Amino acid sequence: MALLEVNDISVRFGGIVALSDVTFDIEEGSICGLIGPNGAGKTTMFNVISRIYDPTTGSIRFNGGDLVGGSSDVAPHLISQVGIFRTFQNLALWDRMSVIENVMAGAHVRSKGNFFSSMLNIGRKKEEAELASQAFTILADLDLAGVAFQQCAGLPYGTLKRIELARALMGNPKLLMLDEPATGLTHSEVDELSLVIQKIRTDYDLTILLVEHHMGLVMSISEKVVVLDFGKKIAQGLPSEVQENPAVIEAYLGAPAS
User: Fold this and answer.
1) How far apart are CA 87 and CA 1, in angstroms?
2) 104/96 Cα distance (integer angstroms)
3) Which of 2, 193, 203, 253 could join 25 in a cystine, given CB atoms 3.0 to 4.6 angstroms apart?
4) How confident is the model at residue 146 (pLDDT cuts 50, 70, 90)?
5) How high is the pLDDT of residue 109?
6) Which residues, at least 6 apart from 10, have a Cβ–Cβ distance to it below 8 Å?
7) 1-83+173-258, which class in CATH?
8) Which long-range contacts (CB under 8 A, 24 or more apart) does 109-113 make?
9) Which residue has the higher pLDDT, 257 or 155?
10) Burial bucket for residue 102 (CB in 10 Å: 0-12, 13-18, 19+)
11) Which burial class, exposed, middle or buried, applies to 133 when counting CB atoms under 10 A from its CB (0-12, 13-18, 19+)?
C-alpha cells in the first residue's frame, strides 16, 4: 500500500520548469531514494511534498488523504501534524541549547499546552518531564545518551546529524524525509548512518524518502530508487535496475552507455 502518491507534479518559476509531470509512489514502511544530477529537481520535489512550494499542476496524496492539489490542501504549518517531518542539508540546531533541549523541540506539534495553560504554567512541568524522558530514550537509541546534556556547539558534525534525526523522531513521523544526510560525513560515518537509517525505519515504523548524492548509501539501503533529470523522471525501480539504466548512466556521465 502506498503511503505517498505523487501524481503528475509540475512546478514552474516563471519560464523555468523545475519539475515536469513527475509521478511516483512510496510504499508504506519502505526506503525510497530520490536521486539525480545537480539541478535535477530533487530539492524542489522535497519542498513540494513538505508544502514549502505549491505545485503548478498535479496532486499528492498522503496516508489516504489529499496533501496538495485535491479537494483540500494541507497548509504548510500543519504538515508535521499529518505525520511528515524532514531534515535539511544544512544543520538547523540551536548551538547554545543542550542536545536534549534541541531534541525536545521536535515535539512541539504534540504539545498539549494552549495559550491560557502556558500563561499560567498549568501542567507544563509534567509535560516537560515526559518529553525529556522520551527525548532521552530516542537519544539512547541513536547512541547519543552520553552527550544529551551537552551544548550542541563543538560536537562532531556526524553527531550533529544524528541529533537532527533524533529531533525529527520526537514528532512521531509517518514519513521522514532526509535531505542529503551524508553531506560532510567521513566514509566510516556514512557507513554508520546507513545502519542508523535502517534501524530507525524498523524501530519507529517509518517510511523514508531519501535525497542523497552518496550513491553507495542510496543503493545499499533503498528498496526503490526514483531518478530525476532536468525536472523529469527518467527512471525508477530497484537499485540494481536503476544503476544499469542507460538514461541514468547518460545523465550522470554525460554520454550514452557503450
Assistant:
1) 25
2) 14
3) 2
4) very high
5) 60
6) 17, 19, 20, 21, 22, 55, 56, 57, 58
7) alpha beta
8) 109/80, 109/81, 109/171, 110/171, 110/172
9) 155
10) buried
11) exposed
| pLDDT, position 118 | 47
Three-state SS at 176 = strand
Q: What are the Cα distances from residue 2, in Å, to 52, 60, 85, 176, 194?
A: 22, 12, 17, 15, 23
Strand bridging mode 232-237 / 224-229: antiparallel
Q: C-alpha grid cell for residue 229?
A: 533529470
- Give one word for 143, left, alpha or beta, with left for phi > 0 and alpha for psi -120 to 50: left
- pTM of the model as a whole: 0.89
Cell numbers that stand for 231 in this block: 525536472
Q: For CA atoms 112, 146, 89, 209, give the dihedral sign.
A: negative
What's the distance, CA 161 to chain centroid? Answer: 12
Cell of 122: 498549568
